[in-house]
Design a protein that fits this description.
- It is a single chain.
- Helix content is 65%, strand content 3%.
- The protein is mainly α and 232 residues long.
- The chain is elongated and about 80 Å long.
- It contains nine helices and two strands, in the order H-H-H-H-H-H-H-H-E-E-H.
- Strands 1-2 form a two-stranded antiparallel sheet.
- It is found in: Cell inner membrane.
Length: 232
């Protein structure tokens, strides 16, 4: 069944449809592509172009997204392969859980840093410790070396830098830090990413549950068929 055909069967059997969709590369490629896009935007737009320095928790979040990229790419190699699909799920869920954990901490630090009570600002280091002691900050310092302070993500423009009109407008827009809508301080970066990772968790969980249900259905049908084929 093709991917487009799967959509037409969604109403009759949504569980089977969602399970069948995972046998195609598109869902896994989308997971990898969206995760990679988030990292590229954070680095190339906000860090490089708008001079927002990444903090320790920020580079951990990038690592979490890269775990999801890896999981999506592995599963997309052969989506019908159970082992590769399991690898995709493991790295996808692990990246999401880590991303939620890092952003919960970052949101707490952000709240403390911008309140009258500074308690909780601790925990932001210039020497990150990645899972499995991966020295990503030494291998790829441009992407994984924290140079900013947790909770303070406003642009820090180097002296003598000449900004374009668009850069000037956007750095002024984000002068008080990264918010979904800076003029009202509506949803800081950590809160937005909590929503993003939360949505990813819902979609991946639904997909995994539907896949497991389908596997159990097939196993049940196979067992029933064997019983009916046994001679009396």
């Amino acid at each position: 069944m093709g991917l487009l055909d799967s959509f037409t069967h969604f109403k009759s059997d949504p569980v089977a449809t969602i399970s069948e969709m995972q046998d195609h590369r598109l869902p896994w490629i989308l997971m990898a592509a969206i995760s990679l896009l988030m990292v590229i935007v954070a680095h190339s737009v906000f860090q490089v172009w708008l001079y927002m320095r990444p903090c320790e928790q920020c580079v951990y979040v990038r690592f979490a997204f890269f775990c999801m990229v890896f999981g999506g790419v592995v599963a997309a190699l052969s989506p019908k392969n159970v082992v590769l699909k399991l690898v995709g799920y493991v790295f996808g869920f692990w990246g999401i859980i880590q991303g939620l954990r890092y952003n919960f901490k970052l949101n707490k630090i952000h709240h403390a840093a911008h309140s009258d009570d500074p308690f909780g600002v601790q925990g932001c280091s210039a020497e990150p410790t990645f899972p499995f002691n991966l020295p990503l900050d030494r291998w790829f310092p441009e992407w994984f070396k924290p140079t900013g302070d947790c909770g303070f993500d406003n642009p820090i423009i180097p002296d003598g830098t000449t900004l374009s009109t668009m850069q000037q407008a956007l750095t002024d827009f984000y002068k008080d830090g990264w918010y979904l809508w800076p003029p009202t301080h509506f949803l800081n970066m950590a809160q937005v990413l909590l929503i993003v990772f939360g949505v990813c968790l819902v979609f991946l969980s639904v997909s995994a549950i539907c896949w497991l249900i389908t596997l159990l259905r097939k196993r049940h049908v196979t067992a029933a068929t064997r019983l009916t084929e046994q001679p009396l």
